[in-house]
Amino acid sequence: MIDVTLESVSKRFARGGDTAAVDQVDITIAAGEFFTLLGPSGCGKTTTLRMVAGFYFPTSGRIRFGTEDVTHRPPNKRDTGMVFQNYALFPHMTVAQNVAYGLKIRRVGRAEQRRRIEEALGQVHLAGYGDRRIDELSGGQQQRVALARALVIRPRTLLLDEPLSNLDAKLREETRVEIRRIQRESGTTSIYVTHDQAEAMAMSDRIAVMESGRVQQIGTPQEIYHRPATSFVARFIGRSNVLTLPVVTATGQAVTVRLPDGPEVAVPAPDGHGLREGGTALVAVRPEHIGLAPATEPGTLPGQVSDLEFTGMATNLTVDVSGERIQVAAIDVPSGTAVGDRVGLRLTKERMWVVRP
C-alpha cells in the first residue's frame, strides 16, 4: 500500500491551445483507499488517471507515490496495475496466459507464476478457469480476468478506467460489489474512474467530483451527497433543487433566506460563504427532503403540481412555486393527487445547504 499525491497538476494538449484538460488538481489519496474520480464525459477524470499511470506526463505540477516523485517516470517503472474500459485482453491467449502477461515481462519464475496466477484467479472467483479461451467467457468474467491480470503483479496502486461500462445494469451492480470486496481484501490503493454517480457512491471511500478539468469537491459519499460544495455537484450527484433565494441575515455558519411566497428559514452554510444581507444565496435541497401538505397549511410553500410520475418506491412530482419548478420525491402521496392540484411543500431546513455557484 502507498499513498498517491497530485500537486497542482495540469495537462494541456497542443491541439487544445490554452484550454486545460486538467487544471491545477490537488489530491492526496491515502494508502489502501478506494478513491473515485467522478464527472461527466470530458471533465478530465481519465486524463488525470492516465497521468497517474504514466501514459501522459503533466504540463505542470508533480505526482508522488509515497515520497517518490514519479511525475516523468514511464508507466513500466511505476508499479501500477491498470484495468481498462475494454479490458484489453489477448483473445489468442488462455485466461492463465492473459493473467501471466505482466509476470513474464517482470521475469518471474514459472513456479512462482503458476502460484500467483492461481491466487489471483481465486481472488476474482475464477479458480479452474485458467485453460479457457477468452471468447468462452461472459463479459463479467472477462472483466474479472482483467482485474486478476492487474492484481497478479501486486501493484502498489490499482487504476480502473470505467471497467463496468460494457456490462448490463444487473451485472454492473454484481461486479462492483466484487471489485470492492477484492480491493478491501488486497488493501491496494485504488483509483477508479466513472461517470456513474450510483457506482461512485456505492464503492468509494472518497470521491473527487470533476468538471471542466477542475476538482469541484473532494469528500466521502455522504459529504458529497448531503453537503455539496457547488451548484454543479448538487445537480450532478443524484437529483437536487438549487433555489436562488434572498438573504435576510448571514452569520459564519448559517444564512437566513426567504423562501418563495413562504417564511424565512435559517439554512446551514459552509465556512467562508461570503454572503451578506440583501444579497442572494443558492440553496440546495434534495427532492426526498421535501414533504407534501395541504396547500393551505401555514408555513408551507403553496404550489401547483405540473408533473407526476409513480416509480414504485416513491412518486416524483414537479411543483411550480412562484415560477420555481421544485422536484419532490414523496413516499406518501394522498390518493387521487393529480397534475393541476394545489399542494403545500414542507422543506426540511436541516437538510437544506448553501452552495457556491
Describe the overall structure.
With 357 residues, this protein is an alpha+beta fold. It contains eight helices and 20 strands. The protein has helices spanning 45-53, 95-105, 110-123, 139-151, 169-186, 197-203, 221-226, 231-236, and strands at 4-11, 22-29, 34-38, 60-65, 68-69, 80-83, 157-161, 189-194, 206-211, 214-219, 241-250, 254-258, 264-268, 280-285, 290-293, 301-310, 315-321, 324-330, 342-347, 353-355. The protein has a six-stranded mixed β-sheet with strand order 6-7-8-3-9-10, with helices on both faces. It has a five-stranded antiparallel β-sheet with strand order 13-12-11-14-20. Strand 7, helix 5 and strand 8 (189-194) form a beta-alpha-beta unit. Helix 2 (95-105) packs parallel to helix 4 (139-151). The radius of gyration is 24 Å and the shape is elongated. The mean pLDDT is 94.
Which geometry do the CA atoms define? elongated
**Helix and strand run:** EEEHEEEHHHEHEHEEHHEEEEEEEEEE
Helical amount: 10-25%
Q: Give the uncertain stretches in residue-range form.
A: none
Q: Alpha-carbon distance between the termini?
A: 37 Å
The chain-level mean pLDDT equals: 94
Percentage of β-strand residues? 25-35%
**Please, how many helices?**
8
